[in-house]
Amino acid sequence: MTFAYTLSQYVVQIVAGLGTGAVLFLIASGLTLVFGALRIINFAHGSLYMIGAYVTVSLAEEFGFGNAIFWIVIVAAALVVAAGGLIMEVFFFRPIYRRTLLTQLLVTFSFVLIINGVLRNFYGAPTRSTDVPPFLEGSVRVLDGRVPKYQFFFMAVAVVVAIVLWALLYRTGLGRMVRAAVSDPTLLGLSGVNVRFLYTGVFVIAAFFAGLAGALTTLQGTVSLDLGVDAIILAFVVVVIGGLGSLSGAFIAALLVGVAQALGILWVPQASIAIVFAVLVVVLAVRPQGLRGRTA
Amino acid sequence: MTEIAQQFTQGFPGVRRGLERVVDPLRISPAQYASAKPALWGFAAAAMAVVGLLPFLAGPGDILLAQQAIYLGLLALSLNLLVNTTGLVSFGHAMFYALGAYLVAIPFVKEVPVLENPLFAFALTPLMGAVSGLVIGFVVFRGRELYFALLTLGMAQLVWAVAHGWQSLTGGTNGSNGVFAADWLNPFLHAHQLYWFVFGIAFLCAVILYVITGSPFGDALRGVRENRRRAEFAGLWVKRYEMTAFVIAATFASIAGGLAVIGETQVNSGQLDWQRSALALVAVLIGGMRYFLGPFVGAFFYLFLFDWVIERTALWDTVLGVIVLFVALAMPGGIAGMIHWVLAHATALVARLRRAPEAAPAEAAVVESGFDAVHVPDVEGLEATAAVSDGTGPPLFEIKGLTKAFGGLVAVNDVTLHVRTGAIHALIGPNGAGKTTLFNLVTGLMKPDAGEVLLDGEQITGKAPWRLVKRGMGRSFQQTNLFWALSSLENVTLAGAAVNDATTKMYGRHAAPLRDKARELLDQVGLGAFGGTSAFELSHGDQRSLEIATALAVESRLLLLDEPTAGLSPAETETAVALIRKIAMEENLTVLFVEHDMEVVFEIADWVTVMHRGSVLAEGPPAAVRADPECRRAYLGEVEEEEEEDEVAR
Amino acid sequence: MSGSDGRPAALDVVDLNAFYGKSQVVFGLDLQVAAGEVVAILGRNGAGKTSTLMAIAGVVNSRAKSIQLAGEEISHVPSFKRVRRGLSLVPSGSRAFPNLTVAENLDLVRSAADGGVTWTVENAYRTFPKLAELRESSAGTLSGGERQMLAVARAMLARPRLLMLDEPSEGLGPIVLKDIAARLREMAKDGIGILLAEQNYRLALQVADRVYFIEKGTVAWQGHADRAGDSEVIGRYLAV
Question: Do the Cβ atoms of B402 and B412 come closer than 8 Å?
């Protein structure tokens, strides 16, 4: 365990951590919304993210990753994942809304297995990667070190998405309904809203952003079959620390976790993830409902 | 499965009818399931024999696989104590397995004196499990339900991260290798002996767990699972029981981990991550968590299937995922359940072929009380004279100046109430009067802002429910609160055992006097014929009666009944009323009950307290209260008064 | 059953049974509300009034021979669709969405396609000027009376053919109650059927044309409102 790093190294690492945190936010935001409105914990959310990554790899191999193509590819990947999410919710998740926690977790977990197998079958076990689109090549000077451009891109995307989600929730009719569903779904049904349909909508939106996160993550390096599980575990930590159902909590917690992990890599390289879980345990022990959650 | 079908066919009554016609003959009645039990036992014994004799029956590859299934099975079995028996879902159970494994492996590799003997270290794994269970338990029990599950995941990941990262100690993903426990357990020279050692230890552990699960302690855990609130009100210190279960589960998980190292002679962090915890859960589910050996069935099924599938397709985890999905959605009984189902059909078939007359009565004996059956139980002395019990005497129960506010709303406002010993005291009042809040305050579910509560002169203000129960207070709820999956007899027995701390016994059965008393109580409330029926199968009226029986079982001196006749038909109400009066007289109980049904109040109450908007409005004998104009106004609205004011103002 | 002007009954319920889990709370109840009629269900707490309304709205488990809304059978229709066909329920407890503003609460309502009345959000603000003042306030900060006004306004925005209210008087002062009573009479004049469940019999008798007394989940007495005002009847079914 070593703490001897220069300020510059720290800053660079923290910035990188913010970048990772930004991608984490994209994943965690969907997870927390789904929990707030539908009240289920979706283990397969990380797998949706992974699908986004692999689909992006395929599309990038097919069409290249030029500046314009890049945007089309990532949106296309997100849409594919959204479609997958639609099928998952309508056929497999709807029956389990009223079932026990264990059933919900096992059903969502089964999709982790299913998706893993399908992806391995199509893409094989070895890792894959893509190039970086031209406009994101290179790095930016920060103090004495350099930070890859794409990290800043991630942060920009995260901020945009946060604004978009916020606007969706607080400035649109759909968002109104989602917020209403979080507080009183029965009353919402009595207002003539098809709450089932709404649930599907929320799920699909969450899946879209998970897919987008997956698409973006291809810029960071390699894509492998571990991606899904690593992501879901971290996403859970973020969501729980931030408070289940809280979007702002997810934002803060995602950045927090990203930075914690980055610092962990500096301080305890072999067990960087341990820092993250230590934070989780401490937060839950002290404030069980998370930073911005309502009392459990 | 039928629920799923129902949901999908909700808009299509024709389809649903068709589906029912197909599914109904496949259904098995509870009686048939019960009569298949001997067959199930036989099957289990045969399966265990096969596993035990495997070295003679199969090749080395299968033996190794079976060994692995045994470690996983033992881990899953220990997990099932939490999941099925106590109702706690843990995502990180493998952390205890890891700790046990490293306890055996690391000292050997590091040549730590004394502990470097793997067998000795193995003997210490239960201690490791228990201690770590206690420590980790303190952390994870800070959360309930979902948060508990996530905390277990977090802790497990923490343990794994340390194991993974601290390479100098654990060897990380390379792990600790070459851990040979003893010459006679050398896997290369004495593979069979090793196998029998593993099998033997696992068998011993399973027996111990079986005894614990079937003991009064196990009953208490099942009560906690079924209905945590009811468990509190049966006198169980629920948190302590949950922690104990957690520690026991951790103990056996550590033994499994140590056993695995002895069997495999190695361990590495890759085997101990979240996937192992998930695997244990999957084994529990696929095997059938409601059956004791289900986890082993699941472990064997999973590993052998995995072995078979992985050779044939790259889609092995998809196949497994589909199986998990199918079982989770459609087969709550798991594979063991399916076996039971098959055996039940088989026994039924055999019985029919033999035209055995026993088959028919067995089914008739199980009375299925649906909502159509208005069951009027046969209670002796129900036509007791409308005797007014002598409600005079010192107050058994005193509420003094009790106040509780929620934000700006004062729900209970300086309420003072005395319940005399032996009285049947009614608490009435219009909607929102604060009656249920008052009940919650005096039964320990909420802490009052001010005031005190005394039972027989002793301060009980703000004490936890289970303590109150032990001091003689029983409570029923507006919505019936029972141990749903347990039978009537089990409900009552458990309540009686819990309050006497007889549920700390981890072996054997409840003492005979307890069971006899339970049977007596069931007779007393008219449910003598329903001892074997599950609580959820009883009619609503019978459920209410069962609640009263459990209240009697905890030997209450004071019974607090919250709307005892809510949801009862007129006939059932009559029975409930007669029952309350009868037991109050027979057992010399003091009763305080909330009611909306005025006829009930007038039939049995000696004394009535009227609450309105959080305060006591009036009290007295029923007739006096009825005539009181204040009360009339409270019930019928104050619009009249204000209309008069308006008119005067004009 | 159609009203005197040939319109189909706003509501016609035959043999309604409702359940909360295992317990049956409504036993074979029959009920009609003509178009433009105000009908009150009276009874003590626990008698089954709320369960009846919830069952008709499709929110609780129920079985009925028939439930007809303005002549259309709705017993197999899911709850939210019943709202879209013109059935509106104001549940008890002055419920609103506390994390939304008053304006958002109102905008949320999905009105029936060919509903009973044309009502817009502007109507709501005109009818309940207090709500206009509180337009941007979060509904969680409103008083009980204000939330109830909001709830009634939301129910009207659904353009119902049948409006059901569960204990609208609960927690409200006499002036507000007078207001609500007047509104209800107006709505009835517009041809909406109104079904009111109440413990406060005076409010009910002020507005209702017909009354049902419910006890233990069945109809114990029914008749015209003037006869229901008889103190004997009241005493029997409502009082202590």
Answer: yes
Nearest one of A38, A42, A129 to A81, comparing CA atoms? A42
Q: Which domain holds residue C173?
A: 11-92+160-237
Please give the share of chain B, as a percent, with pLDDT higher than 90: 26
CB contact under 8 A, A190 and C104: no
Residue of B nearest to A105 (CA): B328
**C234 contact B CB<8A:** yes
Interchain contact, C169 vs B430, CB within 8 Å: no
Between the alpha carbon of residue A277 and those of residues A243, A264, B271, B599, the distances in Å are 16, 11, 19, 60
| Per-residue model confidence as pLDDT tens digits over B124-181 | 999 999 999 999 999 899 888 878 888 898 889 888 888 888 888 888 888 888 888 7
For every one of its 240 residues, what pLDDT tens digit does chain C have, with 9 covering 90 and above? 444 567 788 899 999 999 877 678 889 999 999 999 999 998 876 678 888 999 999 988 888 899 999 889 998 899 888 988 889 999 988 888 988 899 999 988 876 655 556 778 888 888 888 888 888 888 888 877 788 888 888 888 888 889 999 988 776 767 777 777 888 888 888 888 999 998 777 778 888 999 998 887 888 888 888 887 776 676 666 665
In a domain, A1, yes or no: no
Confirm or reject contact between C65 and chain B (CB < 8 A): no
Residue C23 placed within a domain: yes
What confidence score (pLDDT) does residue B362 get?
38
E strands, C34-97, in order: 38-42, 61-69, 72-73, 87-90
Task: Judge: B539–C22 Cβ closer than 8 Å, yes or no.
Answer: yes
* Domain limits, CATH 1.10.3470, in chain B: 51-304
Task: Give the DSSP letter string of A191-226.
Answer: TT--HHHHHHHHHHHHHHHHHHHHHHHTTTSEE-TT
| Counted domains in chain A | 1
Domain count, chain C: 1
Per-residue pLDDT of B574-594, as tens digits, reads 888 888 888 888 888 899 999
> At residue C207, what are phi and psi to the nearest 5 degrees?
-105, -20
∠C25-C31-C32 over CA atoms, to 5°?
A: 155
How far apart are the two ends of chain B, measured CA to CA in Å? 68
Closest Cα to residue C184, out of C6, C44, C23, C37? C37
| Position A295 in a domain | no
Lookup: tokens for B83: 């999941």
Domain that holds residue A263: 7-286
The CATH number linked to A244 is 1.10.3470
How many contacts (CB atoms, under 8 Å) link A and B? 128
Class of residue B484 by CB neighbours under 10 A (exposed 0-12, middle 13-18, buried 19+): middle
A156 is written with which tokens? 């920009």
A281 touches chain B (CB under 8 A): yes
Q: Can you name the CATH fold of B389-472+556-650?
A: Rossmann fold (3.40.50)
- Whether residue B324 lies within 8 A of chain A, CB to CB, comes out as yes
Query: Considering the domain boundaries, does residue C129 fall inside one?
Result: no
Lowest mean pLDDT among B348-357, B542-551, C26-35: B348-357
Q: Which residues of C touch B431 (CB under 8 A)?
A: 45, 167, 170, 199
Is A250 within 8 Å of chain B by CB?
no
- In this structure, is residue C154 part of a structural domain? no
Is the pLDDT score of B22 beyond 70?
A: no
Q: Tell me whether B546 touches chain C (CB under 8 Å).
A: no
- In tens, the pLDDT along B520-543 reads 889 888 888 888 888 888 877 888
- Is C227 part of any domain? yes
Structure tokens at A157: 């995307």
Question: Which CATH number among 2.60.40, 1.10.287, 1.10.3470, 1.10.4100 corresponds to the domain B51-304?
Answer: 1.10.3470
Cross-chain residue pair C109–A191, CB shorter than 8 Å: yes
- List of chain B residues whose C-beta atoms are within 8 Å of the C-beta of residue A270: 164-167, 172
